[in-house]
């Protein structure tokens, strides 16, 4: 927890008219204002409300859920059916998640049970190929290799990659060895060396075959929406290690891959909001935080912009900022930046685009009921025929009765030219993005699987809008680049009553790239900070879950720690 600093007097005016005072609840040190109703903000509100704090959540939109909310096609529901549902991106709850499943188990459903019971296991994943190449469908958790033998692990990983993707044997062996280097590196080397090495350089992609570059160089963008040329090798390795444990069933909390049995808002977010309201949480929608006013080392009050364009003053004892990183940095005025240099460091963080397109089909498609990675797609597409896994019959529940399935696709690369128009997604219109994505899907799955006649309609993430200079994205998220760990703040700041929550806050469990799991952990850490600053109110701490560590790697990491101390490279890092 960083040492708190003291602000030197109040901040100068920042050009905002002094807001009118909103009615503030009496709290006696128990009032919390949470700005942002995404997973991080709702998690912080949940933990604090359970411990008796008076929580008010301010959200700039008219609904809760942030990037995890469902998106409904306007005016698409007829005959008593709900509007056609879509998502900002793909939804997956992996087995190595622990913080998020714990929260899901604590959200009751009106008919009994909890939201966690709405999860459905996915047992297969497909790597689809274009150009007539064979697609590969893999069962989840197929591994039997012993972690205690690094040589065996290298050969097992290399064999699986070679068999699945017909990669050159020498290249797969090298790639597998690089993964094992990351798995067996000590923490000091991970953060002192591999954090600063780009993934593309770490796996020597520039000198390998095109197939290696396409499949193994670009897979981080398929799996984690990271750019191979700039992504931190530590972050990538951490993600692949978690996936390996998932495949082995080690330290997991459920299936290797699970999805909700309905649209996210209906299966999770709406019951969560109902539960929080039952706990006393107050929601103010159409309320966007625009200013934090510091005085004597604390935030004295905040200003929000209302849906009608006015400003309101928000008084609280504790303030939790749970908005995206690109919006959070706009709140850091000179006084706050002077109080906590980590806030100023956030200026160096970068954002990326990773947004969804929904295709509504007139008839079921012959695709697996699981995630499909479209390996050769220039826009790095991953899709899932999500309605195959939903409990309610699609055509009787949503839309006009003619749409029978929802194929959800996430676009992770908005900067590479496409196959249809020869332009990056950013330079297309919304309609062109949809047509381009449809063409890339058909190139991988086949025109017979996705005939044009089966397409009922499409809906692109509403955060993507058209401007004179191309598309704009109202919902980018953190991109883990080399050295970005140094730029990310802790949940507890040096300002006495200011706390941070979001997937851009430092987290310490399994992975640290943008996921619902990291957002949930960050919300827990912010709530724990409030609780500690309030004197450990009610005595109960907020639990965060530690990621699994294979005991078989302990000795290798101990050896590497000594080699790091001596200035020596990792034992397997021969430089070849």
TrEMBL record:
Residues 39-531 form the Amine oxidase domain. SUPFAM superfamilies: FAD/NAD(P)-binding domain (SSF51905). It comes from the Bacteria. GO terms for molecular function: oxidoreductase activity. This is Amine oxidase domain-containing protein. It comes from Streptomyces caatingaensis.
């Amino acid at each position: 927890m960083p040492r708190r600093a003291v602000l030197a007097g109040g901040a100068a005016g920042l050009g905002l008219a002094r807001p009118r005072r909103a009615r503030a609840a009496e709290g006696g040190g128990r009032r919390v204002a949470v700005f942002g109703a995404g997973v991080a903000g709702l998690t912080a509100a949940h933990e604090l409300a359970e411990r008796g704090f008076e929580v008010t959540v301010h959200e700039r939109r008219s609904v809760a859920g942030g990037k995890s909310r469902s998106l409904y096609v306007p005016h698409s529901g007829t005959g008593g059916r709900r509007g056609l549902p879509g998502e900002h991106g793909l939804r997956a709850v992996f087995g190595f998640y622990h913080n998020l499943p714990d929260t899901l188990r604590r959200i009751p459903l009106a008919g009994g049970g909890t939201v966690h019971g709405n999860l459905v296991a996915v047992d297969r994943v497909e790597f689809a190929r274009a150009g007539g190449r064979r697609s590969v469908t893999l069962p989840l958790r197929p591994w039997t290799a012993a972690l205690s033998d690094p040589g065996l692990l290298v050969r097992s990983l290399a064999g699986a990659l070679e068999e699945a993707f017909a990669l050159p044997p020498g290249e797969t062996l090298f790639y597998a060895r690089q993964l094992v280097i990351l798995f067996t590196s000590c923490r000091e080397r991970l953060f002192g060396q591999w954090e600063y090495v780009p993934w593309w350089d770490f796996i020597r992609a520039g000198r390998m075959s095109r197939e290696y570059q396409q499949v193994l160089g670009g897979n981080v963008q398929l799996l984690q929406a990271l750019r191979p040329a700039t992504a931190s090798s530590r972050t990538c390795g951490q993600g692949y290690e978690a996936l390996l444990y998932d495949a082995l069933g080690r330290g997991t909390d459920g299936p290797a891959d699970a999805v909700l049995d309905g649209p996210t808002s209906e299966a999770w977010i709406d019951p969560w909001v109902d539960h929080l309201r039952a706990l006393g949480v107050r929601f103010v929608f159409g309320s966007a935080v625009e200013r934090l006013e510091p005085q004597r080392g604390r935030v004295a009050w905040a200003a929000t912009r209302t849906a009608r364009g006015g400003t309101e003053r928000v008084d609280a004892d504790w303030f939790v900022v749970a908005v995206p990183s690109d919006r959070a940095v706009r709140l850091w005025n000179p006084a706050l930046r002077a109080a906590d240099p980590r806030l100023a460091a956030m200026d160096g963080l970068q954002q990326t685009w990773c947004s969804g397109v929904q295709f509504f089909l007139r008839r079921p498609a012959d695709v697996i009921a699981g995630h499909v990675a479209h390996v050769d797609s220039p826009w790095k597409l991953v899709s899932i025929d999500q309605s195959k896994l939903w409990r309610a019959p699609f055509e009787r529940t949503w839309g006009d009765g003619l749409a029978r399935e929802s194929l959800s696709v996430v676009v992770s690369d908005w900067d590479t030219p496409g196959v249809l128009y020869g332009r990056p997604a950013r330079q297309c219109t919304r309609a062109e993005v949809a047509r381009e994505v449809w063409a890339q899907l058909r190139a991988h799955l086949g025109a017979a699987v996705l005939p044009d006649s089966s397409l009922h309609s499409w809906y692109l993430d509403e955060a993507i809008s058209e401007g004179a200079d191309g598309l704009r994205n109202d919902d980018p998220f953190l991109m883990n680049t080399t050295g970005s760990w140094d730029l990310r703040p802790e949940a507890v700041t040096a300002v006495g009553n200011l706390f941070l929550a979001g997937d851009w806050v430092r987290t310490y469990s399994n992975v640290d790239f943008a996921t619902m799991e990291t957002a949930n952990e960050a919300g827990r850490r912010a709530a724990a900070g409030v609780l500690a600053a309030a004197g450990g109110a009610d005595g109960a701490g907020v639990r965060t879950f530690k990621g699994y560590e294979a005991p078989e790697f302990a000795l290798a990491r101990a050896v590497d720690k000594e080699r790091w101390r001596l200035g020596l490279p990792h034992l397997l890092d021969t430089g070849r």
